[in-house]
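I had to read the description of the data format several times before I understood it. For illustration, here is how one protein appears when written out as sequence plus structure tokens:
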Amino acid sequence: SEVKERPGAHPLAPLTSTVEFRDVGFAYDDAPEKHILRHVSFTARAGQVVAIVGLSGAGKTTLMNLIPRFYDATEGALLIDGVDSRDVTLVSLRNQIALVTQENVLFDDTIAANIAYGAPGASRDAIQDAARAAHAHDFILDLEGGYDARIGERGQRLSGGQRQRLAIARANLTRSPILVLDEATSALDSESEQAVKAALVNLMRDRTTFVIAHRLSTVRHADVIVALDNGEVAELGSHETLIDR
């Protein structure tokens, strides 16, 4: 159903970015008896990297879609710095969150305009700094037109790795304190994956980061790993703890 603001919703205050899932459950309105998530509870503290792992259909993406309120939990609550996310305005909430997915939205516009989407009025220097941090600056300069080159519909004139690095540059520029990475490297070849991973290291620095992955081995450096199985938390702990189990 459509997400709506509650009466009296207020702007979200400046964040330290602790995110808590408190006994969260979710079911779609047209199938309320079919729970996609059940009794999910864990906390991501400011600056931590939290990995969400599990098989396809385990509920990983649905769980992450609750953070920017693409959906609302039907049970329990999602708290950001102790505040129920449903009690703050959507604009102020979403301004605190950056998303990098497998299929990022790019427009038939210039490189600079695509990076600055979400940060209108950003200076060219700021755009270039964001691109450098995303390991994108060099390939951009190799394009005819550089930062003024048009990339085609959905970025079709770029490779998959180049498109991902533009999305990372965009997320860098917004400086959002909460970051959600949804299988951000899964569709790339090995060479592109290494470049994107290097860019992600810069992007994740000093942010509360959620990483969605299928394989435990890809998130060994996470502070906390949440293993979902059929919508429930099956395991919770560090990589070493889960491997020992």
In short: The CA atoms of residues 70 and 102 lie 17 Å apart.
